[in-house]
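F.,

This is the one I mentioned.
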């Protein structure tokens, strides 16, 4: 039995990793005691603006029952699966599948929901997958550019990466201190077009989210604070 599991893990490392992560999350979501999904008082961000507006439109209050708690925990668990996936993909780019599996096993057990893991701030927890996705797209294009010696490898991919990074900033505004070094590194590597496309994508996301908040009757400036 153990030999079969080991063979399956070696043949399908990503699938085995995600199955472990899903099993851990099912146990935590259902059986870990407590009501709240997170303990931390959240910072004001554009995402919190959307959340407050959505809760008011749906008539959801702070005293909502266990069903809403279970739903929120499930959503957190699904988001964290994406985080595990991105960590595996990024590590696999620069190392091998074995090392990627071992590294991604850490968030598989430790990054499940804000009150059960290594990230307690819900904004950071929800913004991290967006940042990882954007970083993964940029890193993949840089690897392709370096291997192919081609300056024009999928320029639009940098725009998509920028859009995801911009959404990450809208959810977790402190992540701007992660995004700025990414742009700086692209410039240092003399990929100015990639940096420009990424910056444009970031701007598109932030402006689009701000305009959508205005359309919903919410002042976005209320949620842009340092």
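My design for it:
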């Amino acid at each position: 039995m153990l030999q079969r599991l080991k063979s399956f893990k070696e043949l399908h490392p990503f699938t085995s990793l995600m199955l472990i992560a899903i099993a851990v999350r099912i146990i935590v979501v259902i059986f870990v005691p407590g009501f709240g999904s997170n303990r931390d008082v959240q910072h004001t961000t554009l995402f919190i603006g959307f959340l407050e507006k959505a809760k008011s439109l749906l008539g959801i209050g702070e005293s909502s029952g266990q069903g809403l708690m279970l739903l929120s925990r499930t959503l957190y668990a699904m988001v964290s699966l994406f985080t595990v996936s991105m960590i595996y993909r990024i590590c696999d780019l620069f190392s091998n599948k074995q090392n990627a599996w071992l590294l991604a096993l850490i968030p598989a057990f430790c990054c499940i929901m804000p009150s059960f893991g290594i990230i307690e701030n819900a904004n950071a927890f929800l913004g991290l997958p967006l940042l990882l996705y954007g970083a993964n797209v940029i890193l993949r294009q840089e690897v392709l550019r370096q291997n192919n010696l081609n300056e024009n490898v999928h320029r639009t991919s940098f725009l998509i990466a920028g859009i995801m990074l911009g959404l990450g900033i809208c959810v977790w505004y402190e992540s701007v201190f992660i995004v700025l070094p990414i742009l700086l590194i692209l410039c240092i590597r003399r990929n100015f077009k990639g940096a420009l496309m990424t910056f444009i994508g970031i701007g598109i996301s932030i402006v689009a989210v701000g305009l959508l908040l205005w359309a919903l009757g919410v002042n976005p400036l209320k949620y842009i604070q340092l």
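The beta strands are 111-113, 116-117.

Talk soon.
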